[in-house]
Write a structure and sequence with these properties.
single chain, alpha/beta, 20% strand, Rossmann fold, 121 residues
């Protein structure tokens, strides 16, 4: 199964010490997709953030090597929603607004639960 990983999903390993790839595999996902729009957001965060957020963005950027990159740019949330519909993929995100938007269009959402594991809706 495919899962699209949002910016904040890639930052979970640093922020919450959760191995997202092992957790996604546990949930049955074997294809990890990151849109260029997310990479652009991470690059911006790396340049503009300081401290823990900057470190999380840098580590998240390095995790992209474990993912397939979709050559789609634009507003990240719009790109993710469209890709999820087009590919029938789930989305890993902790963004409350994006979670609601995806749920409204019947997209499976993977999210951090109890700050130590991933769960699906």
């Amino acid at each position: 199964m495919k899962v699209i990983i949002d910016t904040n999903g890639l930052m979970i390993p640093v922020q919450f010490k959760v191995d997202i790839f092992n957790e996604l595999k546990r949930l049955g996902f074997d294809e990890f997709l990151v849109p260029e729009a997310v990479i652009d957001e991470l690059d911006m965060l790396t340049k503009r953030s300081k401290g823990a957020d900057r470190t999380a963005a840098k580590v998240a950027r390095s995790l992209i090597d474990m993912c397939e990159v979709a050559d789609v740019r634009g507003v990240a949330d719009d790109v993710i929603a469209k890709l999820a519909v087009d590919l029938g993929a789930a989305v890993l995100t902790n963004d409350i607004e994006l979670k609601k938007r995806l749920s409204d269009i019947n997209i499976t959402v993977v999210y951090l639960r109890q700050k130590n594991l991933l769960a699906m809706t």
